[in-house]
Amino acid sequence: MQYQTLTKDFDYLDFLDINQKALFGTALYFTILVDQVCFTHFHQYYDKFYQLTLYPKFVGNSPSTDQSNFPPREVFNAFTYSRSQEKMFNTPNVEFWQTFNQAIPIMKNETIDFFRKHLSEIDGQDFWDKCVKELTHHP
User: Fold this and answer.
1) What is the torsional sign of CA 25, 28, 30, 36?
2) 73-109, pLDDT tens digit by residue?
3) Separation of alpha carbons 22 and 104, rounded Å
4) What's the pTM value of the predicted model, to 2 decimals?
5) What value does the mean pLDDT take over residues 99-128?
6) Which of 11, 76, 88, 119 stands 20 to 30 A from 126 (CA)?
């Protein structure tokens, strides 16, 4: 997924209302976080993890030249960004903080459960502990 597709400069997500954008952005944040934690800390199991999840990568605006994965926190920045100052300051911003905080215990349970059921070679609690170290403190 390209950074620019989440910005105010494109209308890809205009079918979602502002609350749905907060839910989508938060879900995307955690999807990217879990994928990157697995790749970084459990690389020996990443191929199996990827085959099970097919999680997207969050990359720059030119997929042919920019293959670096952006950190998950950039999801929240993308939703408020625009090249146009008018769009940046005169369109509503998605507020993620409440949705993000409510999602943390849900994602903890889902993550631990996923590894227990599908990839038991990884201890789910250990995995989640590594995720927590990477959590954005205020999106």
Assistant:
1) negative
2) 999 999 999 999 998 888 889 999 999 999 999 999 9
3) 14
4) 0.92
5) 98
6) 76
Question: By C-alpha distance, which of 20, 22, 2, 17 is closest to 80?
Answer: 22
Question: Could you count the other beta carbons within 10 Å of the beta carbon of residue 128?
Answer: 19
CB 81: neighbour CB atoms within 10 A?
16
Separation CA 95–CA 43 (nearest Å): 33
Measured in Å, how far apart are the chain's first and last C-alpha atoms? 19
